[in-house]
Design goal:
There is one protein chain. By secondary structure, this protein is mostly helical. It has one domain. It contains 11 helices and no strands. The longest helix is centred in the C-terminal third of the chain and has 23 residues.
């Protein structure tokens, strides 16, 4: 799961969402330096990633990309799944996507001082380019993939992954439609007292 899905799966708690959002920048036991709800958000993120990475439907999506994306196939699948969540947002949340994402950008700015430096560095660009909302359209996904291709250490084809998405759009949509209700249930069952 990528950014939008992690935020969505955090439920109504701003602090859980902040922790879930910053988790990739918080290594090992460094989550313990954060207050309890933010730390729980970091642990939620890790649980989501573990469940996602081992899920057979996600593995099927990832396998579909190995020929062109190699080691980055799982990252690309996460972004594709965020696209399907954003595109069909109305099925999952009562608040319109544009309002939801704008509200979350405001929350991020309120917590700016506790965000890891890496997150602080990309946050202005993320807000200006409205990444979360623009996951809903193919042009936005293409920009995200292009940006990621430029930021990774090793050569990747992520900037060309939009071709894979267009070519197998229905198959990726079907995989997402099977997987996402399962991750929602997993999170609700495991973290219901915190969300």
């Amino acid at each position: 799961m990528n950014l939008l899905a992690h935020i969505y799966l955090s439920g109504a708690s701003e602090k859980i969402a902040i922790g879930n959002f910053i988790a990739d920048s918080v290594k090992g036991k460094k989550y313990l330096k954060y207050e309890e709800k933010i730390a729980k958000g970091i642990l939620l993120h890790r649980a989501i990633d573990t469940f996602t990475d081992k899920h057979p439907v996600v593995m099927r999506s990832t396998k579909r990309l190995y020929a062109t994306q190699k080691r980055y196939a799982p990252v690309v699948v996460d972004i594709f799944y965020d696209h399907f969540l954003a595109k069909d947002w109305y099925k999952f949340h009562a608040t319109p996507l544009q309002e939801f994402t704008s509200d979350f950008y405001e929350v991020l700015q309120q917590y700016y001082t506790i965000l890891p430096k890496r997150v602080q560095d990309f946050l202005p660009y993320m807000i200006r380019e409205d990444w979360l909302y623009n996951y809903s359209n193919l042009e936005g996904i293409a920009r995200v993939l292009d940006g990621m291709a430029n930021r990774v250490k090793f050569k990747s084809n992520m900037d060309k992954a939009i071709i894979d998405l267009k070519r197998n759009y229905q198959l990726f949509q079907e995989d997402f439609d099977v997987f996402f209700p399962e991750i929602i249930d997993k999170v609700r069952n495991q973290f219901s007292n915190d969300l």
